[in-house]
Amino acid sequence: MDNKEILNESISELFKSNYDDSLIKDNKLCFTVNEQLYRVRMPNQGEQSLAEHKKNLIQLEYLKQEGCITKNQLIRQLKLNNVIDIEHLEELRESLSKELKRFWFLLATKDSGDKKKISEYSENITKIQESLQRLSLDIASHLSPSLESRLEKFYVEYITFICAEYHPDKEWKKVWDTLEDFNKADTVLTNKAIASMTWLLLNKR
Q1: CB-CB contact of 26 with 32 (8 Å)
Q2: Residue ranges per domain, the chain?
Q3: Of 39, 44, 65, 67, which has the fewest Cβ atoms less than 10 A away?
Q4: What does the DSSP assignment read for the chain?
Q5: How far apart, in whole angstroms, are the C-alpha atoms of residue 188 and residue 181?
Q6: Is the Cβ–Cβ distance between 166 and 173 less than 8 Å?
Q7: Do the beta carbons of residue 197 and residue 154 sit within 8 Å?
Q8: Which residues are CB-contacts of 30 (< 8 A; sequence separation ≥ 6)?
Q9: For residues 148 and 71, is the Cβ–Cβ distance under 8 A?
Q10: Within 13 Å of residue 142, how many CA atoms lie on the same side as its CB?
Q11: 166 beta partners
Q12: What is the pTM of this model?
């Protein structure tokens, strides 16, 4: 499963809904794929402990691999080799996020009759969202080889495998019986499920 494709799907879902966490009900988030209703839910304590245990085991495997590098080491190398300054990009992302929140506030409190200002604020929001999306993809793409990024990817995918459900008739049922089934599944579904789980975790952490 491609990291950039998954991240792009996650960010796109966030932007399409303007980070509207009201779509999350009872620690669950629904979505549809090919007209089939699915949802992801927050893991219970036992499921979370299992996922953490699996992540710890995979970390031991990663550490044995040649070329294993931490996030901080990778950031330093990227800067020293004049590839990219991640710290600068993260500062810029933080600044843009604050600006985005400011325009959302201005838009929410603006008189509905002032069409010109509403249009201006909406255009600014769209531009900032697009800039944030490009920044996030750029940062994540460069940091994807790091140990922390690989572990986070594994954790989110494992939680998604455990906690994704579909609604074929009257009851919610687990989508995948095994992790192998999840890894072999249609990427349209898995990417959408991971994107939804990412959103859910971001809102509950």
Answers
A1: no
A2: 1-45+149-205, 70-144
A3: 67
A4: --HHHHHHHHHHHHHHTTT-GGG-BTTEEEEEETTEEEEEE---HHHHHHHHHHHHHHHHHHHHSTT---HHHHHHHHHHTTS--HHHHHHHHHHHHHHHHHHHHHHHHS-TT-HHHHHHHHHHHHHHHHHHHHHHHHHHHHHTTSHHHHHHHHHHHHHHHHHEEE-SSSS-EES-SSHHHHHHS-HHHHHHHHHHHHHHHHHH-
A5: 14
A6: yes
A7: no
A8: 23, 37, 38, 39
A9: yes
A10: 22
A11: 38, 173
A12: 0.78
Residue 8 to residue 92: CA distance in whole angstroms: 19
**144 neighbors 105 (Cβ within 8 angstroms):** no
The owner of tokens 């809904």 is: 17
For residues 200 and 30, is the Cβ–Cβ distance under 8 A?
Answer: no
